[in-house]
Specification:
5 helices; single chain; elongated
Length: 112
């Protein structure tokens, strides 16, 4: 069984005494390369897990189900879209009428 000496590993990252204060090119490059590969490994593991989870999970529909045409597709009715568009136009008209009315208070630009 391999024992990890955490004090030695942490010593690479924290320079508290004179032993680590000097610039050591090989040690610094090893730390940077090791950190890069650890980060790259973590990113690949998370990406692979998410891809696997989306592919397998049936509650999301699954990629295979959508490719085969078996997945559920959310559709909207044209009537409901027309109603929403009409309501938005009415609200826009009310807003524009409010802006063009004479009762609108004069708002001065603070940057002038």
């Amino acid at each position: 069984m391999i024992k990890l000496d955490l004090k030695k590993i942490i010593g690479y990252f924290i320079y508290r005494n004179d032993r680590f204060a000097a610039i050591k090119l090989w040690r610094d490059w090893r730390v940077m390369i090791l950190g890069f590969f650890v980060l790259l490994t973590v990113v690949f593991l998370i990406s692979g897990y998410l891809f696997w989870k989306i592919k397998i999970d049936s509650s999301l529909g699954g990629i295979d189900d959508l490719a085969n045409g078996n997945g559920k597709v959310l559709t909207l009715k044209k009537q409901s879209l027309d109603r929403v568009a009409k309501e938005l136009k009415e609200k826009e008209k009310i807003f524009n009428d409010f802006l063009s009315s004479s009762s609108t208070p004069f708002i001065r630009d603070p940057s002038i």
